[in-house]
């Protein structure tokens, strides 16, 4: 099967059941996408599949055939994404481990809802856990990015 | 070439010529006090390094682990400030595990408090050497040479040279007595006390930061381990046929069985090695193992809690006493009793434990997300039968830690497997591994009884604490709380009550017990600060006013003078007294910021709590709103922190925001056991705070202070749960004495 990762077409002949997470991390060596729970409970592994946020820890490679995967390494390929800038403006990260998942989730969300309300942000981000507790800054940064993109 | 220095003085700093510049070695004092049995070795003369290259690059070696507190940034800020370095020319190098660096165990909220002065002196000494080098070059007096922002200028002539140009000459200068070099005054600080941005933020937002989970080595195998479900259980029978048949699986290896004490040894079980993570996980799923569970299979946490409560109802061993509590209770106008329980918790950092190892006949190298590279080195050396000098421990970024990664057991697993398989091995812990096989935050039962006089003043206080001790992890015969745990919010009770007795009770551990952010402060602050609120209610007083009355007049509490075993977080009481004035001050500040006395929006209520831990004073006000179905949310939180001198204001704010949310997680999460097996396994049954439960806003006020720097990473966690439960009482009349707090209260 063929799969596009961050704009590059790749031939994949491995286990079709292998979650996308382990393919990008172990096979492609792109470790920005994180393992957090393995059960789609925490969002640390979030990537885009044809622009939609998915949990790569439970999505098998077979689903990605002829589709396009974007990881944190490929976000904002033409410079920095507005969310990455906003994350820096608000100094969101603490340990940083969950933040690629948070940013990927927020990027997909903002592309569908460019002008979200507070409660819409909360609903969209509820699946992404941050144990350092950066939530108040995540909310603020998403709003800043939304204004920046408007 | 070593710079001469007066050998009669304590060895502190040495300078030597590198090939391309100045290498300044800073010898630090040995750690004043060890945190626990498990802590780093003692008696060494540790040091740090500042290097200046001929191109002007300043390399700061960070000997503390980065787990979200931005210590890599703070350490660089401190050195760069006194060095008068241009921030853009500072790079940070992460130290490997080595006693030459001094204490590296990144726990106990002590990275800044134990290093601020020494690192300032190191920066100032380097700056002085650069000034001397310029004076030497120009043949002018040193005091005419000013070093500002990476440039030394001769004031009368206006000549100037950059730090890089001077580095070589500086290395041959006579080292000044570091204690004789004047440090900057506060108004001269360029970086200290400012919100300097994290040096790692770019890597983080682009997914380039490398954590333990991310380590890749040539020819590396990934291992996941099936561990005994019950502590000290062993493999009775193994069928690994199906596991070996999984494509990608390269080996199945039996781990050595674990014998008590647990220490930092591998837990035992069966490891599956594979060429990639997915194959290793699938291979482990395919193992057929029959376990021999052993005596800990009797552990049922519900029954255990009842036993602990029964213990708390009987007299225990006295840890602190003054006045005559029994008589005062007897004569009290009103007697109030309450029992508080807190379950086991799991640290559950977003990155579960992970370590990679490469082992040859005469050396080993580890890459790990460890808080403690020195004990990692020691334990790996022990497990491999090597000298510590043969083991190198590389510290990656830590995807959260909260105490879990101060235990090097996962590095030991990787080392054993790399040795046995003959290939580099990375051990990954899945989330289930992390939650079921951790070093759990201790489970706690406490009973508090107080007597109030006719005016509602508290005149007697009897508090008993019962919990299995962390010491049991290191010595299975230990059943009493240690002095090191009692000082965490129990023995250091700050209330001014004429009759007080504090007692400890026995409990035997059946799981590995370990440190979790702020440790025993979590349950002690919950009981003490909840009970303070209960007393205010009984006395029909405003809870904030009553809390201030309990704290009493500004004074320094002298526990050792009262015969109490108390080590004050390893620092002196002279520098860091238990100061009830500062404690009361944060209460007043937080109340004012929260608008304690003002009218609130319909249905919103406030709760307050205050706690001193890690030498820092934190008061928290939580605002709750409870709907008619009993669901609650937290619109606002206010935190006032007095941590003495702070290095980075934004980091302190972030730690208070995160520490509060961690405190909320401590209030809603629980780990239980049935027949010795942990019942929870992932974020579906181990609840942690999500964004929809997080406070709408967190206002953090940092008290401006010239006092010595105190802890920052942990102290905002303990007051959160009692402040929350006090607010919920105000909103519902329902007193929560048993954690976890249900996400929906059953309203009668």
Question: Topology of this protein?
Answer:
The complex is a heterodimer of chains A (150) and B (748).
Chain A: E1 2-5, E2 8-11, H1 20-27, E3 46-49, E4 52-55, E5 68-70, H2 82-89, H3 99-112, H4 118-125, H5 135-149
Parallel strand pairs in A: 1-5
Antiparallel strand pairs in A: 1-2, 3-4, 3-5
Chain B: E1 13-17, E2 21-27, E3 47-53, E4 58-62, H1 71-83, E5 90-94, H2 116-138, E6 145-148, E7 151-154, E8 160-162, H3 163-171, H4 201-205, E9 221-226, E10 234-239, H5 241-245, E11 249-254, E12 270-274, H6 277-285, E13 288-292, H7 301-312, E14 317-322, H8 325-330, E15 334-342, E16 354-359, E17 364-368, H9 373-384, E18 391-395, H10 409-421, E19 425-428, H11 431-436, E20 444-452, E21 458-466, H12 483-486, E22 499-505, H13 521-538, H14 543-551, E23 556-557, E24 578-579, H15 580-594, E25 604-613, E26 616-626, E27 632-633, E28 636-642, H16 649-668, E29 673-674, E30 677-678, E31 697-702, H17 720-732
Parallel strand pairs in B: 4-5, 9-19, 17-18, 21-22, 28-31
Antiparallel strand pairs in B: 1-2, 2-3, 3-4, 6-7, 7-8, 9-12, 10-13, 11-12, 14-22, 15-20, 16-17, 16-19, 20-21, 23-24, 25-26, 26-27, 26-28, 29-30
Written description of the protein model:
- The complex is a heterodimer of chains A (150) and B (748).
- Chain A is an alpha+beta fold and 150 residues long.
- Chain A has helices spanning 20-27, 82-89, 99-112, 118-125, 135-149; strands at 2-5, 8-11, 46-49, 52-55, 68-70.
- Chain A has 2 domains: 2-74, Ubiquitin-like (UB roll) (Roll); 82-149, [2Fe-2S]-binding domain (DNA polymerase, domain 1).
- Chain A has a 5-stranded mixed β-sheet with strand order 2-1-5-3-4, covered by helices on one side.
- Chain A is globular and about 40 Å long.
- Chain B is built from 17 helices and 31 strands.
- The longest helix of chain B has 23 residues, at 116-138.
- Chain B has 3 domains: 13-192, Aldehyde Oxidoreductase, domain 4 (2-Layer Sandwich), CATH 3.30.365; 212-295 and 353-428, Aldehyde oxidase/xanthine dehydrogenase, molybdopterin binding domain (Aldehyde Oxidoreductase, domain 4, 2-Layer Sandwich), CATH 3.30.365; 301-345 and 439-732, Aldehyde Oxidoreductase, domain 4, CATH 3.30.365.
- In chain B, helix 1 runs parallel beside helix 2 (116-138).
- Chain B is α+β, with helices and mostly antiparallel strands.
- Classes of the chains: A alpha+beta (150), B alpha+beta (748).
- At the A-B interface, helix 1, helix 2, helix 3, helix 4 and helix 5 of A face helix 4, helix 6 and helix 16 of B.
């Amino acid at each position: 099967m063929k799969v596009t990762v961050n704009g590059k077409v790749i031939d994949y002949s491995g286990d079709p059941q292998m979650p996308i997470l382990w393919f990008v991390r172990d096979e492609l060596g792109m470790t920005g996408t994180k393992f957090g729970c393995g059960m789609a409970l925490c969002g640390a592994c979030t990537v885009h599949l044809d622009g939609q946020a998915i949990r790569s820890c439970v999505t098998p490679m077979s689903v990605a055939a002829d589709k396009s995967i974007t990881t944190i390494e490929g976000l904002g390929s033409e410079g920095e994404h507005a969310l990455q800038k906003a994350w820096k403006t608000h100094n969101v990260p603490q340990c940083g481990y969950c933040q690629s998942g948070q940013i990927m989730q927020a990027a997909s969300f903002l592309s569908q809802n460019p002008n979200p309300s507070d409660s819409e942000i909360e609903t969209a981000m509820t699946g992404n856990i941050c144990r350092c507790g950066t939530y108040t800054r995540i909310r603020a940064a998403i709003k800043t990015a939304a204004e920046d993109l408007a | 070439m070593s710079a001469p220095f007066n050998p009669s003085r304590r060895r502190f700093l040495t300078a030597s010529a590198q090939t391309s510049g100045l290498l300044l070695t800073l010898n630090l004092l040995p750690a004043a006090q060890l945190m626990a049995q498990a802590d780093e070795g003692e008696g060494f003369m540790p040091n740090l390094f500042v290097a200046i290259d001929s191109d002007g690059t300043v390399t700061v070696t960070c000997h503390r682990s980065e787990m979200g507190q931005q210590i890599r940034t703070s350490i660089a800020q401190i050195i760069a400030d006194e060095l008068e370095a241009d921030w853009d020319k500072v790079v940070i190098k992460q130290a490997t595990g080595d006693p030459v660096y001094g204490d590296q165990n990144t726990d106990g909220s002590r990275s800044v408090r134990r290093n601020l002065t020494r690192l300032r002196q190191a920066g100032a000494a380097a700056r002085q050497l650069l000034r001397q080098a310029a004076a030497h070059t120009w043949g002018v007096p040193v005091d005419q040479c000013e070093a500002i922002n990476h440039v030394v200028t001769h004031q009368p002539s206006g000549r100037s040279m950059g730090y890089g140009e001077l580095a070589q000459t500086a290395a041959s200068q006579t080292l000044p007595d570091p204690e004789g070099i004047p440090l900057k005054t506060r108004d001269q600080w360029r970086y200290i006390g400012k919100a300097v941005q994290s040096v790692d933020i770019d890597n983080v937002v682009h997914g380039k930061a490398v954590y333990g989970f991310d380590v890749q080595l040539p020819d590396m195998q990934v291992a996941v381990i099936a561990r005994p479900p019950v502590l000290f259980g062993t493999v009775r029978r193994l069928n690994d046929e199906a596991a070996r048949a999984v494509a990608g699986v390269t080996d199945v290896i039996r781990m050595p069985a674990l014998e008590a004490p647990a220490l930092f040894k591998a837990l035992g079980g069966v490891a599956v090695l594979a060429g990639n993570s997915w194959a290793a996980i699938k291979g482990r799923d395919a193992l057929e193992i029959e376990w021999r569970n052993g005596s800990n299979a009797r552990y049922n946490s519900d029954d255990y809690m009842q036993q602990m409560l029964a213990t708390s109802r009987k007299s225990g061993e006295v840890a602190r006493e003054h006045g005559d509590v029994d008589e005062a209770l007897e004569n009290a106008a009103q007697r109030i009793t309450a029992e508080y329980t807190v379950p086991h918790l799991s640290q559950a950092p977003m990155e579960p434990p992970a370590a990679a190892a490469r082992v040859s006949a005469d050396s080993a190298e580890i890459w790990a997300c460890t808080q403690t590279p020195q004990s990692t080195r020691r334990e790996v050396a022990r497990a491999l039968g090597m000298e510590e000098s043969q083991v190198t421990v590389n510290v990656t970024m830590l995807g959260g830690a909260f105490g879990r990664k101060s235990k090097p057991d996962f590095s030991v697993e990787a080392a054993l497997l790399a040795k046995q398989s003959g290939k580099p091995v990375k051990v990954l812990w899945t989330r289930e591994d992390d939650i079921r096989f951790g070093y759990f935050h201790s489970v706690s039962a406490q009973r508090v009884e107080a007597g109030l006089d006719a005016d509602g003043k508290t005149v007697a206080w009897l508090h008993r604490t019962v919990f299995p001790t962390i010491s049991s992890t290191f010595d299975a015969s230990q059943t009493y709380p240690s002095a090191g745990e009692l000082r965490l919010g129990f023995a250091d009770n700050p209330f001014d009550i004429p009759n007080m007795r504090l007692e400890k009770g026995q409990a035997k551990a059946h799981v590995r017990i370990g440190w979790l952010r702020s440790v025993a402060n979590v349950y002690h602050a919950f009981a003490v600060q909840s009970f303070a609120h209960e007393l205010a209610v009984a006395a029909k007083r405003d809870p904030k006013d009553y809390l201030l009355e309990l704290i009493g007049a500004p004074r320094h509490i002298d526990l050792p003078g009262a015969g109490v075993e108390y080590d004050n977080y390893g620092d002196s009481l002279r520098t860091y007294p238990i100061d009830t004035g500062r404690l009361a001050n944060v209460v007043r500040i937080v109340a004012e910021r929260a608008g304690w006395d003002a009218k609130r929006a319909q249905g919103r209520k406030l709760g307050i709590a205050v706690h001193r831990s890690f030498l820092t004073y934190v008061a928290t006000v939580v605002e709750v709103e409870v709907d008619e179905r009993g669901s609650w949310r937290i619109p606002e939180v206010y935190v006032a922190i007095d941590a003495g001198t702070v290095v980075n204001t934004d980091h302190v704010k972030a730690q208070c925001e995160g520490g509060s949310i961690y405190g909320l997680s401590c209030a809603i999460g629980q780990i239980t056991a049935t027949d010795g097996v942990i019942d929870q396994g992932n974020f579906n049954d181990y609840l942690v705070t999500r964004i929809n439960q997080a406070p709408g806003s967190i206002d953090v006020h940092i008290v401006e202070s010239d006092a010595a720097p105190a802890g920052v990473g942990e102290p905002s966690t303990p007051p959160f749960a009692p402040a929350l439960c006090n607010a919920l009482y105000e909103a519902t009349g329902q007193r929560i004495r048993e954690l976890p707090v249900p996400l929906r209260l059953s309203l009668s």
